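Working notes for the structural subgroup meeting. M.R. asked for a predicted model of this chain before we commit to crystallization trials. I am recording the input and output together here so anyone reviewing the notebook later can reproduce the run.

Input as submitted:
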Amino acid sequence: MPQISYSMACFRDRALDLALDAVAAAGFSRTELIGKPPHLEDPPAGAALTALRRGIEARGLAIATVHAPFGGSVNLGMPDDEVRRQNVTLFAGFAEFAGAIGAAGMIVHVVPKPDRVTDANAPGIADEIRDAARRSLDELAPTAGRAGVRILLENTPRYESPLPLYTHAELRTLIDNYPGEQVGLIVDTGHSWINGIDPVSEIAAAGDRLWGTHLQDVDYDQPHDQHWVPGEGGLDWAAINAALEKVNYRGAWTFEIVAGRNDETPQQLAQMTHRFAMRWIGNQ
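Returned structure, recorded in token form:
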């Protein structure tokens, strides 16, 4: 049976212990931790890490993945080298935490927001971002290897950005020279569709380097980062299932749901998602 996981993103309205309770109550046995308040502003260590591990085990849960901090300037590809090095230090700490908590992967974003780049339309800026991302991976990959964690690069929404590295075709080229056990990819199905790409194509482009999923639905005609329960939007979930099977996907099947179409509560969304997962993955 695939490893079915539910992201803590749905429960950022409450403290981490209550979020863990909610994931377990919905029937999930695995979850993805988020490096954002009110859950994990900093990676726990020492007694705090021990207490967290015990709390996770007591609820019958395991940690599939850890999503490192993200947003604004927090990414692998910042062309400002001082900021980039600060990000690498931050991500290294979360990679070590991910290994200590038993996670298989740590998710990171690659592309800066255009407003965090001095001139997103400047000649050569795309190459600067690619070079920055490579330098970051050069420094992070050995840390991940020692921690027993795979760094997972996520496809993020392009919208009108002129910057590179939003798609798996681009990201696959970026990571091909890194060891597969240290660096991989994660597909966000909604982000794919926002970028005008069928998630099936993104899964195929990632191929055997795909080690993570953010399964979420979006509107078919006017997609935004809606993060609906699968089946509530316009994506073809039978085709997505078949595409994952075709690449022999072996990572966690993580659902990243944050909103409902009909004002459902976070707990209702988790329960709806679990019911969908049991039907959908059971059809393999």
